[in-house]
């Protein structure tokens, strides 16, 4: 039974890392699910306080992933169209132009979204930059949290 749980936990950890890039998957919560499942095997002996902190970090990273792009776009003078454009650009870039599409797609999408709201090119470019910075901050935060969770996951399996 433990081997099945470890397999499921490993899949969740992998999906958690992928979820940091793919906007469809909630990366940090999936990673946390993986380490939580590992905790209930004979190989997992993770302290309760650590689990609480990792759960909080996963929750905060997930919420901030939605808030940061909107905040940064507005801070740089953008609109909702810029945020939606960045999201659509990420999806298109991810599937049609990997791996650079993950970086270029949100920027171009935000720019086109701002242009579609009749903004001048210089203001649209500034808004797109804000959306792009917010996207990178959110993605970086998700990677950091999922990376820490993955580190503890690997250490629990390797040490035991």
Count of DSSP strands? 0
Mind telling me the C-alpha Rg? 18 Å
Distance between the termini: 17 Å
Shape: elongated
What would you say this structure looks like, in words?
The structure is a single chain. With 160 residues, the chain is an all-alpha fold. 81% of the residues lie in helices and 0% in strands. Helix 3 (48-75) packs antiparallel against helix 6 and helix 5 runs antiparallel to helix 6.
Q: Topology, please?
A:
Elements: H1 2-18, H2 27-39, H3 48-75, H4 80-96, H5 101-116, H6 121-159
Helix pairs in contact: 1-2, 2-3, 2-6, 3-6, 4-5, 5-6
Question: What is shown here, in short?
Answer:
The protein has helices at residues 2-18, 27-39, 48-75, 80-96, 101-116, 121-159. The protein is mostly helical.
Keywords:
160 residues; elongated; 81% helix; 0% strand; mainly alpha; single chain
């Amino acid at each position: 039974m433990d081997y099945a749980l470890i397999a499921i936990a490993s899949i969740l950890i992998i999906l958690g890392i992928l979820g940091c890039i793919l906007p469809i998957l909630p990366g940090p919560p999936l990673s946390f699910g993986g380490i939580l499942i590992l905790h209930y095997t004979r190989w997992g002996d993770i302290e309760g306080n650590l689990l609480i902190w990792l759960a909080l970090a996963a929750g905060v990273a997930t919420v901030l992933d939605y808030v940061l792009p909107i905040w940064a776009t507005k801070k740089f003078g953008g609109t909702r169209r810029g945020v939606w454009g960045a999201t659509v650009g990420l999806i298109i870039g991810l599937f049609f132009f990997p791996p650079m599409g993950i970086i270029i797609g949100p920027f171009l999408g935000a720019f086109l979204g701002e242009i579609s709201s009749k903004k001048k090119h210089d203001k649209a470019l500034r808004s797109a930059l804000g959306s792009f910075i917010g996207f990178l901050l959110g993605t970086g935060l998700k990677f950091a949290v999922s990376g820490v969770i993955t580190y503890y996951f690997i250490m629990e399996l390797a040490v035991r």
